[in-house]
Amino acid sequence: MTAFFALTTSLLWGLADFGGGLLTRRTPALTVVVVSQAIAATVLGAIVLATGGWSDAGPRLWFAFAAGLVGPVALLSFYKALALGPMGVVSPLATLSVAVPVGVGLFLGERPGLFQVAGIAVAVSGVVLAGGPQLRGAPVQRRTILLTLVAAMGFGTVFALITEASTTVTGLFLALFVQRLTNVAVGGAALVVSVRRGGPAVPEGGFPWASLPALAFVGLADVAANGTYAVAAQHGPVTVAAVLASLYPVVTALAARGFLSERLRAVQAAGAGLALLGTLLLATG
């Protein structure tokens, strides 16, 4: 069950990142974040009302609130790093996010078996290579590296926090709702500040209403991924769930190959193969 839900998380996050990347080519990143998360919050609010999720309100919601504060900072740092530096450097570095939940799991006493340790090492190596690490070319600015590391630590922290935010299904819906509301509030405040400083809120042609279905998909896929990761981490070792959930860059690369006909570099293809091998080792361990 852990492997299934963690791999589902990778699939959803990978597709959400692919969709978000396409949308930010035409629409400011902050607007994409705020609108997609607002749609997700609206849907989650309806689910919470329908399932009576409010009855599960308690101190654990502070974890969801904290995840909502950290998430937009991590995402915006990631987008800014992508704008400043080569994706071939930024993307692999961002996968260091897996170190946070894995570290938490080890701190709490989890001890993966031999096959799982091997699987973790192989899968993480595969994810880094799948990002197409750029070993040559112009030097990368220190600011780019710093922003990427901030994003990685932020993503990993969200991983860890959302796992602690609930223990029941209805409580999970409520936790995700609180997280999304916080995301919208933080992202909205950042958007207001950006506009006051002269930044655009919408493209020159106006708000892209035709992109609403895509924005909805990005927001809902992202929130669903948070949910499946929480389930995976609650039903098995966090160390395993975190590594399997971090395979989303492979999904993004394959989506770009399938929909945009982008060619995979040899190192990316090798990384995808290693990631799959690591997944098999984790599943059998």
Written account of the structure:
This protein has 285 residues and is an all-alpha fold. 76% of the residues lie in helices and 0% in strands. It has twelve helices and no strands. It has helices at residues 2-23, 29-51, 61-84, 87-94, 99-107, 114-130, 142-164, 169-196, 212-234, 238-245, 248-260, 266-284. α2 crosses α9 (212-234), α5 runs antiparallel to α10 (238-245) and α6 (114-130) runs antiparallel to α12. The protein is globular, with a radius of gyration of 18 Å. The two termini are 13 Å apart.
Beta strand count:
0
What does the main sheet amount to?
A: none
Q: Averaging pLDDT over every residue, what do you get?
A: 81
Query: What percent of the residues sit in helical stretches (DSSP H or I)?
Result: over 70%
**What is the H/E order?**
HHHHHHHHHHHH
Estimate the strand proportion: under 5%
Basic shape: globular
- From the N-terminal CA to the C-terminal CA, the straight-line distance is 13 Å
Gyration radius from CA atoms, angstroms: 18 Å
Total count of helical runs of at least 4 residues:
12
By secondary-structure content and strand pairing, the structural class works out as mainly alpha
The residue ranges in which pLDDT falls below 50 over 5 or more consecutive positions are none
